[in-house]
Predict the 3D structure of the following.
Amino acid sequence: MQAEKKVTEGNSIEKVIHQRTEAILEHFRADPIAPLISISPTFSLSPLERMNDGRFHKHHDGSVLRFESNRSPDQSFTMVLPSFPNYRNEYVGFLNSTYKTNFLESDLPKGLDIDHLLAASNSPSLTWVRLEALPIRINRSHGGGAEKKNARSRITDARKRAEHRPGTMNWLVAAKLASLMSPLSPKSKNSQSRLEAIVEYFVELGFVRAQVEGGLKSCQHQLAELGI
């Protein structure tokens, strides 16, 4: 029997965004298959629909890909190509369609960014990337931290040339959603304390420390290239 999709009337946009963030972090914690953050247009959507129990719908001539979950609106999401211009408006439109609300773009809290979970600079151009709301200070610390360094790495360059698409959420993306600041370069003053804060957060959720540390290292290309 298909679970009934529940949409609470009178949701504020802050409440909707908060419950979406909690849902994706819980998915990352509890499900062995991490949440989707990007999809290649060459990949068949049917297996993903069966795996995630829902349906994909393309919009704007294929520049936007929305997933409608049969389980919960909090498990629905929208993705856009990195070149899609007005993704803030798309995110608000997705919220209105999914939660039966009438939000305006101006309703978005001033302390939040609507952004790609996988940095557009690290993504092949023909890849749908998931949008979510993120605290500005946290999001920009990641944009100026590990994501910026990864964008210039040999690993990212090779992956782009090979049209590599990671697909599921990694440790740094989860840390960003959990409002944890990005690690910087290994020699930066606050890098180690930031990294330890991320590790402790996931250890407290029940992950094994070595698993978290290894996962975070693989997310920071500078460390991987140096063999640190």
Remarks:
- The two ends are 50 Å apart (CA to CA).
